[in-house]
Automatic annotation (TrEMBL):
Pfam families: FCD, GntR. SUPFAM superfamilies: GntR ligand-binding domain-like, Winged helix' DNA-binding domain. It comes from Faecalicatena contorta. Residues 6-73 form the HTH gntR-type domain. The keyword Transcription regulation applies. Keywords: DNA-binding, Transcription, Transcription regulation. The keyword DNA-binding applies. GO terms for molecular function: DNA binding; DNA-binding transcription factor activity. SMART domains: HTH_GNTR. It comes from the Bacteria. PROSITE patterns: HTH_GNTR. This is DNA-binding transcriptional regulator, GntR family. InterPro entries: GntR_C (IPR011711), TF_FadR/GntR_C (IPR008920), Tscrpt_reg_HTH_GntR (IPR000524), WH-like_DNA-bd_sf (IPR036388), WH_DNA-bd_sf (IPR036390).
Amino acid sequence: MTEKHISLADRAYEAIRTNILNLTYPPGTQLTEAKLTADLNMSRSPVRAAIKMLQAEGLIVTDYYKSMTVKELTDKDIREIYQLRELLESSAFQLIFTSGRWEEYSYRIEEKVVRMCAAASDIYQWELADTNMHLEIISIFDNERINRIYENNMSELIRMGQCSVKNGMDIQETNENLKKMVLHMRENNYETAYAILKSDHFTTGKETALG
């Protein structure tokens, strides 16, 4: 019985979390136990357990009157996370070249770009692939603490990325630019490769996320 209860709670958690991340429940959406049990066709017990997990994760917030909403993405959130990304990824990208591993990482990143291209028709799946591409860049650090920083901000990264696309960031153009970035990496052309990363993912990405 316990295993079944845990399994149902985990299923409820994954379903609600996915609906938050893929913007089925956009930032600011008001949620109720009744709505979630109806959406998931589950009883209140596993849904209640899932809500507690999502509250602990910060994806669902509760006000003084115990009204539940999907956590908003403020302009401050977006600016802070993009600042964090640029600080970490610019250093990581430079290290890829100074450590002499540009060719190796060109192929590693290219694999992620291929997945982005395959997911181009699905904004959520494309954003998941894009996030994995960025994780590949910071993997050069081989630093578990930095990985945890990204993991702790993953839900915001995924939701912000989709907001960027909805506000005008062009998936096809971004994919093509990343293909060019990979080719410049393979030629050990740091300046041009980084300029593409900065333009698409730290400038355009942030501007469109802010709307």
